[in-house]
């Protein structure tokens, strides 16, 4: 098969790295890719939002399988665009159409879906532009912390959690009246605060059957001890000790089955990944959000644990054949530490020379990197994800940090406590 992966982050490098190992894969392309995907595939200089250019590349390179990494092109309808054109009728796609992608693209839609299908989640009310006073009155009926969520895509920044009612009112005004997140905050959900530990669960579905991939824990805040602003994700650990068989069977029965069946009942054909962000509240799982793609940096910890041909698995999903496919998972632990440009998630420098990758013993997945002559330079906020595999969590985390401390550029930054909370739980 000729395979095209859309995206340019650590997630896409990891997917491409694993797909490239498959005997089923003839030619592998990543668009637009980064300095790491360039080592395992051919990068195509195409924006993921330029569907016409994506379509042309599919024809030019005889692509059989398209794997869509990020959410934006899915929400914008890349599948719908390609399916509507005869020239792509043989193309198989991993990633839902725009209707299914609403599970991530609209928090109002996904909340209504969960309520309809009895999927456990925090209670919420939606308020629209023009309903500011109703939204403020609603705050009087609930207790803090207040969780405010922009309805649409907001690059991971659309959630505000505050104990302070004045702050909540100010944010509601900003969102509903001053378009704080553009169109994304024309509707705002005020959601019940869920007190617990977060977990990322990944499901691959062909629309009927599904496989549950290894779970992971993400570290979203920039600072050690979960402090400072939210980021795209600063590290990941898989497996997660509290996600034992008993907890995961609750997740499967109460969340995964009703989600896959609910999509079918609602006539939403969904082929692709469902990433369930959930909260473990005293041993019971509640959905915080759905994403319609893999997580980043969770992919960097999850995919190296698969002992399965990823190209075969993705093909099976795209052709409705998952029930005949085995998913083998390694017992190993995976620890991923994300290395970022100093200043991220606010402003940061680009173009700094990166040194020391070739001496690493771990897997080094690239995100914001690009080739610069024979060398490699920084080209984004999150630069690298370093993943170590090992037989116990403590030594695996240590292995990852051994490599992280030997990779350098000016003003490199990373969290020093990835996995620490899980080691303390043990
Ligand atoms: P989201 O963009 O929905 O992933 O939310 C960002 C982060 O806000 C999540 O990763 C959680 O840490 C937190 N969060 C979202 N919803 C809730 C909630 N209802 N209760 C507590 N924390 C939440
Ligand atoms: N790591 C969280 C995400 O990919 O949304």
Which descriptor suits the 3D outline?
globular
The residue fraction in helices comes out at 25-40%
Q: What is the CATH architecture descriptor of the domain at 2-98?
A: 3-Layer(aba) Sandwich
Rounded to an integer in angstroms, the radius of gyration calculated over CA atoms is 21 Å
**Backbone structural class:** alpha+beta
How many strand segments? Answer: 23
Figure out the total of helices.
Answer: 14
Output mean pLDDT: 95
Bound ions, cofactors and other small molecules, one mention each: adenosine monophosphate, glycine
Describe the structure.
The structure is a single chain. By secondary structure, this protein is an alpha+beta fold. It has 14 helices and 23 strands. Strands 12, 15, 18, 19, 22 and 23 form a six-stranded antiparallel beta sheet that branches. A five-stranded parallel beta sheet has the order 3-2-1-4-5. The protein has a four-stranded antiparallel beta sheet with strand order 6-9-7-8, sandwiched between helices. Helix 2 (37-40) links the parallel strand 2 (27-32) and strand 3. Helix 6 crosses helix 7 (107-116) and helix 8 (132-140) packs antiparallel against helix 9. Bound molecules: adenosine monophosphate and glycine.
